[in-house]
Sequence to fold (195 residues):
Amino acid sequence: MANIYNCDPSELIEKSSEELKKLESIKAPDWALFVKTGMHKERPPLKNDWWYVRTASVLRQIYRFGPIGVSKLRTKYGGKKNRGVKKSHFYKASGSIIRKIIQQLEKEEFVKKDLKSVHKGRSITSKGKKFLDDIAKTISKAEVKVEKKEPEVKTEAKEKPQEAKPETKKETTPVKKETPKKDEKQMQKEVPKTQ
Fold:
């Protein structure tokens, strides 16, 4: 059975963000166009649909590591801040963005609060698992179809008889044999002495 571990994570996040756009409860707030995703960033995200991509990524992280809280997710999405001449430091990502995303996922019933286990935080529900696993199945089916096409092309190439190519004679240049260099002592022996 295909699940999120059997497919490419970036493809899974991209496809699931497209599916999340169709849901009514998950919407980017008005301030999402102007805000940075953390203190370590210099500019806001360039993509206009970054909210849905981050939502899909958070949902995948909760699936993998849940139950997980906002603080751990802030650390996962954090990064180094360029402080010029001074040493760079790690800063966590924005907690407000992650909190709002988790609240929207709770409204859609993809995640729930888990207070009973050792680690407290949000864990994925069966609805959220099904949502991600269904997308992973479609991705893995697409990969299987691509893999099946490649061997067919190779077998067709083998079935065709290859025409005999006339061999062309290559002109070879004779290799000059180098005569060994004689030492000065040998040269003196060979030269007759004249008096």
Q: What stands out?
A: The chain is about 45% helix and 5% strand. The chain has one domain: 4-148. The chain has a mean pLDDT of 81.
